[in-house]
Design goal:
2 copies of one chain form a homodimer. By secondary structure, chain A is α+β, with helices and mostly antiparallel strands. Chain A contains 3 helices and 8 strands, in the order E-H-E-E-E-H-E-H-E-E-E. Chain A starts with a strand and ends with a strand. The mean pLDDT of chain A is 95.
Chain lengths: 136, 136
């Protein structure tokens, strides 16, 4: 596995509206897209900074992963996503090396990326997403 | 304020040795530097991925910020650092816009960067570092 860059950093917020206001007015970033990912029970807002995106995540239900995260820990950094090529092969490789896969097979995430999550118990406490952009 | 890229992501780990092993063997990154930052009571290990660094932080004392973080929340993502220019001006600007400054004046961080932290209570739960590289 050779990740090329940090694709995005996922940040859990209670309110997308408040989050967008903060990232635009204080940090000077520009929200370029808002998207609902129903399967994940979140609404997302995207900002680009260099090679990386900030992905704000507002839960649309309390029983989704982000809703549970906020209930347990409050707002804050939720996950890091690494950009990789040949995601299916990479998943086999990292599993063999001891990572625990939340997604054994890549699935569709926001922005049409192919994504898979690794369990934080196997990644030093960091919820880790691997993603491949097949649109490039 | 116009941050140019994510300078680094700080990740709290109990053991730098275990952390380096995981990031090298599973994620395929290469540790290029280890540095102790006494003032912060941490030992750090750096990995480069695209424009961004992963900075692993092992506490050298339980009463430092990272030691307390691990005691309260366990290992995991600790902070995000944005690269900016003219940090002193930026600090005045973000304070005026409502951010609470942990460091009113920039100080020296790892790798000789000038750094300042914003309090997570004013940044949607994200411990946010701003840093300027005057060595470039």
């Amino acid at each position: 596995m050779k990740p090329t860059h940090i694709e995005h950093i996922g940040i859990a917020v209670k309110s997308l509206e408040e989050g967008i206001k903060y990232y635009e007015s204080v940090l000077g970033l520009k929200c370029y897209a808002i998207e609902e990912v129903r399967e994940q029970k979140v609404k997302t807002a995207f900002f680009k900074i260099g090679q990386t995106k900030i992905e704000l995540l507002e839960p649309t239900a309390s029983d989704g992963s982000v809703g549970k995260f906020i209930a347990a820990k409050g707002e804050g950094i939720h996950h890091i996503a690494f950009s990789v090529e040949q995601l299916e092969e990479v998943l086999k490789e990292v599993e063999q090396k001891g990572a625990r896969l939340i997604d054994k097979i890549p699935r569709k995430g926001a922005e049409g990326l192919h994504i898979a999550f690794l369990h934080p118990k196997s990644t030093m406490g960091v919820l880790t997403e691997l993603c491949e952009n097949k649109n490039d």
